[in-house]
Write a structure and sequence with these properties.
It is a single chain. By secondary structure, the protein is mostly helical. It has a domain at about 1-160 and about 180-250: Leucine-rich Repeat Variant. Helices cover about 60% and strands about 0% of the residues. It has a two-stranded antiparallel sheet with strand order 1-2. The chain has a two-stranded antiparallel sheet with strand order 3-4. Strand 3 (about 70) and strand 4 (about 75) form a beta hairpin. Helix 2 packs antiparallel against helix 3 and helix 14 runs parallel beside helix 16 (about 375-395). The longest helix has about 40 residues, at about 460-500. The protein is elongated and about 105 Å long. The relative contact order is 0.06. GO terms for molecular function: protein phosphatase regulator activity. InterPro entries: ARM-like, ARM-type_fold, PP2A_B56. Belongs to the phosphatase 2A regulatory subunit B56 family.
Length: about 500
Amino acid sequence: MIKQFFGKIPRKHSNSSGSSRSTSSSNSSKKSDGASKKAGSSTNSSISAPPSVSSTGYNSGDKFGHNGNQRMNGELMPASYEALPSFRDVPNSEKPNLFIRKLNMCCIVFDFTDPTKNLNEKEIKRQMLLELVEHVTSANVKYTENAMQEVIKMVSLNLFRAPTPQPRENKVLEAFDLEEEEPAMDPAWSHLQVVYEFFLRFVASPDTDAKTAKRYIDHSFVLKLLDLFDSEDPREREYLKTILHRIYGKFMVHRPFIRKSINNIFYRFIFETEKHNGIAELLEILGSIINGFALPLKEEHKLFLLRALIPLHKPKCLAMYHQQLSYSITQFVEKDCKLADTVIRGLLKYWPVTNSSKEVMFLGELEEVLEATQAPEFQRCMVPLFQQIARCLNSLHFQVAERALFLWNSGHIENLIKQNRKVILPIIFPALEINARHHWNQAVHSLTLNVRKIFYDLDPELFKECLARFQEDEAKEEDVKTRREATWKRLEDIAAKKIHR
């Protein structure tokens, strides 16, 4: 299939000045199943793979010359950096050796900060990388230990690099910044993309034996891969997400270490830096992993929910990853409904006080959690929960009040409220009554009247009791206010008399 794909691409020859350039474009998307069939039980949900690489030029027969030696990234570049023969042009017996020679040639890392340097060599390397992608996709040969070692060496030298310094290093990650600022794109992406594609296909290949490969795709390699998730380039994070998910699925021995390492990234982000570009992608991987957890849940997984996922609601930049976080947390509640009380109390602990946009997000997530909550867990947390909802109902920010009132649109949540109305209505009745009388937003006012009618039609006696208690409390407050004003007036009169003496 990939041969047909490359065959359709127009060939582009470099001119004598060596100014040919290549571009990469995303032309297809594919779904990653996240694991081999043997390991699929822990990674049921699929993660979208990044776009595959394509080439605007593919001519391995061209020869490029380069005089003089130079050292790049610790590798000595040969005096003559020339294209090697194509895999199609050599017998099968020579292909393993040619594979390693091409890998060694691709270990040279070029400087892309200067677009005028090493144009010919960069193009040769890119064509070799594309050939390696085609070979690892179409070849049906078990990789030797030496070949795997060379693959990891080439991938490591190209991917594990110092981050490009960005002038926006110290920026505060707020939700509104996400739309206003463009992410930094790596100038070496034309090569990096093909290296990522090659490694993704190598890991996913049935010819890659996990027992042998785990010696080279080890804990140190996984940690370096996780460090790359902080890249500002979203294209790179997409590849990393898919590759790490494949590694998690294929190398069962690494699973606890991967989960622990992701936990550590979250802890550092929550309690130290509040700056990391890849939290959403890491959560997307975890969402798929959580989906495959066996029941009953291990204590390790419950502690992960309590110590990492719930505190992720604290950072200011929650909007960057809230969708993935909400999905992961809802997965836990759907797996074990007894965790609903823990999750809801966790949300209440980190409930925003002055950030209305975060409050709207919390209410949306709360609705999803309540949809999966059963009556016993609901009853354990309903008093503090509806004390918070009452405060939201009286919010002057109309979206917060409106989102809180939308909870009654869910049949399951409405039934839970109706079953426990004798506890819930006295808590929220004052908020409903104040909204019905004074709220400035017409939509909030109308929704409030609808909710009041639901309670009145359901239990008129309870409604009248709550109304009488509210009026009694209102009269007491008015009396306290009158006495307080009288006291202040008396003090002012005394002070005025002393001044005039």
